[in-house]
């Protein structure tokens, strides 16, 4: 097993440093005493205090080589979700391995990639999901397919330790938060977005717990191992699920619809009712601290506060 010397201050590169996950990861890294190089596309991006702003495209080989020089770890969080498939492929599937190869060539110890549990087949007949479970097929949506392909591309970059962190729905306050802000806005404004199967599994994790896991991996606080159940495999590519406790779609939708003043529309249809298993992450010492009640209360408070600030939001 290996981990950085306690006398060594880690130098960590973080892409998407102004995003929901990237910004929280940067903040956790700064708290831990790491030097953080925050990669953003434009100068003046809103990034946490105490980090170095590096402006550029991580898919550009020259910029990638520059930003990783002297670094001990790299965290990649960027995926242009909602863009067309060609853009998602170019940025994620093609661009992320450019940074990974630059990191390998510079002698970086670890690369931690924020993937997604959406890469797993979660059709109604699928049961519980662990890191060995089947992935989505070619009929998957653009997001799941390109995230799957990015994982595969990183698996092909030998020469450094790679960790594929796979969270499900990421809860947490933020203007760009899909589940705390964007999806609730759609539920408020569009009747079709209120339709759901109530007993379908709602797999989730809070962004603060996710950021803690990613930061601990990037700095080596979670040591490598020759057994993936005890730590990332040294020099290998190891997937790990980052999911919190069980929940259903009813839990989420009832919270949101009450807060925005509409009624959910329940469907009776086949749905996945398994769980995203987090035994591997727990074996690495990760224990989620934010419970479901707290996460849902944060959503409720955020939505009611937003409506208070903007009366038109409740229409």
Automatic annotation (TrEMBL):
<dbReference type="Pfam" id="PF01370">
    <property type="entry name" value="Epimerase"/>
</dbReference>
<dbReference type="InterPro" id="IPR001509">
    <property type="entry name" value="Epimerase_deHydtase"/>
</dbReference>
<dbReference type="InterPro" id="IPR050177">
    <property type="entry name" value="Lipid_A_modif_metabolic_enz"/>
</dbReference>
<protein>
    <submittedName>
        <fullName>NAD(P)H-binding protein</fullName>
    </submittedName>
</protein>
<dbReference type="InterPro" id="IPR036291">
    <property type="entry name" value="NAD(P)-bd_dom_sf"/>
</dbReference>
<feature type="domain" description="NAD-dependent epimerase/dehydratase">
    <location>
        <begin position="12"/>
        <end position="213"/>
    </location>
</feature>
